[in-house]
Amino acid sequence: MVLTTDIAKSYLAASIQHILNVKVIRWMNVISGAALIIFGIKVLMSIFMK
C-alpha cells in the first residue's frame, strides 16, 4: 500500500511540475496562510466567547 502511494505521488509530482512556478507557489502559500489565520481566529473566538 505504501509503495503504491509513493508511486502515485511521484507520478502526480512529475505531471504538475510544468504548472508550478514561483508565482503559483507564492499564491498557494498566501491562500493557505490566510486559511490558517482565519481558522486560528475562529478557534480562538470559539474558546474565548464561551
Provide tags for this entry.
50 residues; mainly alpha; 2 helices; 82% helix; elongated
Describe this structure in words.
This protein is mainly alpha-helical. The chain has a domain at about 20-50. Helices cover about 80% and strands about 0% of the residues. It has two helices and no strands. The chain has helices at about 1-15, 20-50. The chain is elongated, with a radius of gyration of 17 Å. The N and C termini lie far apart (about 45 Å). About 0% of the residues are buried.
Structural class: mainly alpha
Q: C-alpha Rg, in Å?
A: 17 Å
Percent of sequence in beta strands: under 5%
**How many individual helices?**
2
- Tell me roughly what share of residues is in helical segments: over 70%
Lay out the secondary structure.
Blueprint: H1 2-15, H2 22-48
Briefly characterize the structure.
With 50 residues, the protein is mainly α.
